[in-house]
């Protein structure tokens, strides 16, 4: 696997790629997020070549800190693609930031409402259009004291089953040591390291073959969710150098 350290170089696998057009709002976000990720901690990004150079893909990632989307955005952008996040709709109400989200065509999620299904429909349209959709299956930052993934929701599984696209497991580690929301700690330091790593696409052909004419059943959704999160957890174990208890 080619490795991209936090020095700005790109792995051989993505160096020659043509960048996906993103427009002025994506440019503005990149101009803000790139230096921010370098200021908060040392940055190490591995497996950028797992994000396909073109065509649709679904990135499923663990979620340990509210800083994760900033790093995920830079990760996908360094792979020369434009990320489309599913994010809680309240962020669209934040001055300036909401304009950036809307302008860069991110996907608002209205949790616990009738509009929640519309969010998945918007994500499906992004995949149909050949976009890279990013989703955190847990739905929020983990409450596990050791930072391991919690039980995931079914939205990622639904997208993965209904769209024959690469599903890329991706993990963050180190963002929690910079910003711990639950304990209200913000401690940026260049002595800390934030690691992002993407693994090979999750094999889902056998599960997709079981999808009938209607929506996937609860059992199939559960099996798919477990397989996705098993891949994410295994990747995180490797990054952390320890086995989940």
TrEMBL record:
Query: To which species is this protein native?
Result: Actinomycetospora atypica
* Phospholipid/glycerol acyltransferase domain location: 57-175
The record's annotation in Pfam families points to: Acyltransferase
**Mind telling me which residue stretches traverse the membrane in this protein?**
22-41
Recorded coiled-coil stretches = none
Q: What is this protein called?
A: Lysophospholipid acyltransferase family protein
Report the CDD domains cross-referenced here. Answer: LPLAT_AGPAT-like
Q: Which UniProt keywords apply?
A: Acyltransferase, Membrane, Transferase, Transmembrane, Transmembrane helix
Q: Which GO terms describe its molecular function?
A: acyltransferase activity
> Which InterPro entries does its entry note?
Plipid/glycerol_acylTrfase
